[in-house]
Amino acid sequence: MEKDPPERRQTRYASRPSRLVHSTPFYYGWVIVAIGATGGIMTNPGQTPGFSAFLNHFIADLGLSRSVVSTLYTAATLTASLFLPWVGRLFDRHGSRFMICLFSLLLGLACIYMSLVRNAVMLFFGFVILRQFGQGSLTLASKNVINLWWVLRRGRIMGIVGVIGALLSGLFPYLANTLIDQYGWRWTYVILGGILLGIMLPLGWIFTRDRPEDHGLLPDGAGETDEAEGADGGVAPNTDPAPQDESAPSDEESAPSSRTASANPLEINWTLAQAKRTPAFWVTCGAMSCVAMLNTGLYFHIFSVFEDGGLSSSAAATVFVPIAATSAAFQLISGLVITRVHPRFLLATSLLMECVVLVSAAHLTSVTHAYAFGIFWGAQSGIEMLVMAVVFANYY
After folding, report:
1. Sequence-ordered list of residues with C-beta below 8 angstroms from that of 193, at least 6 positions apart, any chain
2. Could you report the per-residue pLDDT of 10-42, keeping only the tens digit for each?
């Protein structure tokens, strides 16, 4: 049966007056970049490096073994992932502003809930909601809102966001440890919840706007200036997204409208059903899932991995610094490179580097090895996170 080609969506969005958007002296997409970057940073309580600072306290205070906590975390991560397709549909239906605010609220409440955990069942539920609203939902919403406001410069913008996120996220385990030493792990979760409710929630409501077309603008600021044309030395990322030639529209169908031809080639937007028919969708999902799963396990047990190699827990804590630094650098580099090469090459590079990381983790015998390991792992993570941020937006 012949497949339906992906539709080229040319919906004319009704322009909504927004004093904030139109009074901003520069393209409002830069404000969205700041909000998206802040949202990504605020997900740290639900990220694996963030959990690593609390792991030993869960074990000691709740009377659980490391293997039990690890099993609960794995099961919770898998459970939380089941809801992500539903989250994506909610994002499409309600828009980025509502979803960023909702997930900031829920993640803040999840952090406060963690301060009340008393047993394995409560810990499992806490893991589920932190992973769901932090690592999953708020991360998804923060990245997607940036992708809606940027097309031609998408790779470069996501590289910049990645640099900011990697540097600040790399400090999170240290900051969490400091708070735990001063206030205890339960009050630390209350503080983190207060930050989300008191900072991210109002920022999301005040400054987030769903898409530029809603305000009479085009992505990259093309509605105000023609500078977006060739901004990264290339073309719009997914003017030819399909790895499946038979399902791509013809040249005549893919001609951009006069409204956007000079400044912003119109993107081809695939529906979920259309994307799922392509082998590239499943190969990319499988590759990214494997890397995410392996890195999650390594992050979660990094302290015990170092201890098995005869290194101290303080060495494990300090290795997050080179990881963060090199991750930031390679996200920026990858953001520039991905506008000139196909994303599959960077994805393959990330997979090969992950193999080296896993083998190296079993042979950490000195501080020098640990820092070299952190530098290489950070480079791999930087490439991986950049690819994960843009590959589906570029393809589909």
Report:
1. 108, 109, 110, 111, 112, 115
2. 444 444 667 888 888 999 999 999 999 999 899
Residues 205 and 77 placed together within one structural domain of the fold: yes
Helix 139-149 vs helix 367-395: angle between axes, to the nearest 10 degrees? 50
User: 285's torsion region: left (phi>0), alpha (psi -120 to 50) or beta?
Assistant: alpha
Query: Cβ atoms within 10 A of the Cβ of 238, count?
Result: 21
**Are the CB atoms for 300 and 73 separated by under 8 Å?**
yes
3-state SS, residue 136: helix
Average of pLDDT values for 121-150? 90
DSSP, residue by residue, 179-245: HHHHH-HHHHHHHHHHHIIIIIHHHHHHH--S-GGGGT--GGGTTT-STTTTTTSS--TTSS--S-G
Q: Do 185 and 128 belong to one domain?
A: yes
Range of the domain at 298: 268-396
Residue 251 included in any domain: no
